Amino acid sequence: MWGGGGAARALTCALGRRRAAAALPGAAGDDHADLSFQTGLRGTLWNYNWKMQLKSSSTLPVSLTEIKSTMLTMKRLRSTSHSSVDSKEMKKFQLLAHKWWDEEGEYSALHSMNDIRVPFIRDTLLNMSSNYHLGNPLSGVKILDVGCGGGLLSEPLGRLGASVTGIDPLEDNIRTADRHKSFDPVLAKRIQYKSSSLEEIVEECMETFDVIVASEVVEHVADLEMFIKCCSQVLKPEGSLFITTINKTQLSYVLGIVVAEKILGIVPEGTHEWEKFVPPKELEHLLESNGFSVKTVNGMLYNPLSGSWSWMESTSINYAMHAVKSGAVGQPSPTGALSEMESEQPSATAGTTM
Question: What is the DSSP track for 33-48?
């Protein structure tokens, strides 16, 4: 601890001085002398230890790599201790990471949901912009797919021309998504996947994306308010946020959990927790509190007999929401007129996708 032989020599010298002092008249039984000796010995050893540590630190400086590694570790610890990622939810999806692209398997309902959610996203964005390319209508649009899973929604958005970044905290999901997109050279260029939580990319992606999609995600997060706040941070002013999720009603409990999970087995039992379902009004309030303006709320209905989705007026079970982040202060909204056109449509894009 104190430098090996050097410390031993210091201790021997100190003990020698102690024995010499003990031989002097009046030294025996002198408590004051004994206390002075102990204090002096501790001081000698402490000074020696301090000098050795100072010398060692001056000759062996900490490398820049070690400093960066320590800072990264501390950052990850902070992000995981204040994260919207729910570790229990991750364990559920870990078991199914290799089944994302089985259209007849556990994720069959998500595959068929693309029939309405992809046109909903596409048509809403086209209604807000006059710049689009035939064949690649979403060309130039940067989309963040949060909780992308195996890439079921990222891929069709990429085929529409968008530049898509898919993130998911489960590395197995990202491996599945990467492997599947590799079969299509076009998608390999347009889509990139990253094993990450939303919180972890905030600093590097501040106001980066034109669009965020969080489909069937918010009912699984640990901290919904933090999740919405992070969405606002990485989204550009006037950017769009698309969410699909499940309402918190008695009907959604019966159909979404009892029937879908326990009776029909449409999704694996335990996939959802009714307590984490989000009513539209609650979600709308959170969005507005974080600088969003909700433009559209559409009800969704899944038919287990046909395996298909359709739009409906009621939001008592599933629903889709589109919100726009407010623009920079003092700047006119480039989509103001388009937003008015959108509000005149009774169910946004529902009529074009049913």
Answer: HHHHHHHHHHHHHHHH
Which pLDDT score is estimated for 197?
A: 94
For CA atoms 263, 265, 267, 271, give the dihedral sign.
Answer: positive
HSE toward the beta carbon, residue 211, CA cutoff 13 A: 27
Pairwise CA distance, residues 235 & 269, whole Å: 34
**Phi, psi (degrees; rounded to nearest 5) at 300:** -130, 145
pLDDT of amino acid 129? 83
Against a cut of 0.85, is the pTM above it? no
| Spatial CA neighbour of 152 closest among 244, 224, 263 | 244
Q: Cα torsion at 217, 128, 209, 322 (round to 10°)? A: -20
Return the number of other C-beta atoms located less than 10 Å from residue 147's C-beta: 25
With a CB cutoff of 8 Å and minimum separation 6, the contacts of 297 are 280, 284, 315, 319, 320, 321
| Helix or strand run (H / E) with residue 177 | helix 171-181
CA distance linking residue 237 with residue 233, whole number of Å: 9
Burial group, residue 231, by CB count within 10 angstroms (0-12, 13-18, 19+): buried
For the chain, residues with pLDDT lower than 50 are: 1-81, 329-354
How far apart are alpha carbons 43 and 36 in whole angstroms?
10
Tokens of 301: 């209905």
Say what the pLDDT of residue 134 is: 76
Take residue 9 and report the two structure tokens written for it.
């020599």
Numbers of helices and strands, H then E, in the chain: 13, 8
In this structure, what are the phi and psi dihedrals at residue 236, rounded to the nearest 5 degrees? -70, 155
CA distance 212 to 290: 15
Contact yes or no for 235/241 (Cβ under 8 A) = yes
Question: According to the 3-state scheme, what is the secondary structure of 192-215?
Answer: EEEECCCHHHCCCCCCCEEEEEEE
Tally of CB atoms within 10 A around 351 = 11
CA–CA separation, 315 vs 332, rounded Å?
33
The pairing of beta strand 209-215 with beta strand 235-246: parallel
User: In angstroms, rounded to a whole number, what is the distance separating the alpha carbons of residues 152 and 101?
Assistant: 8
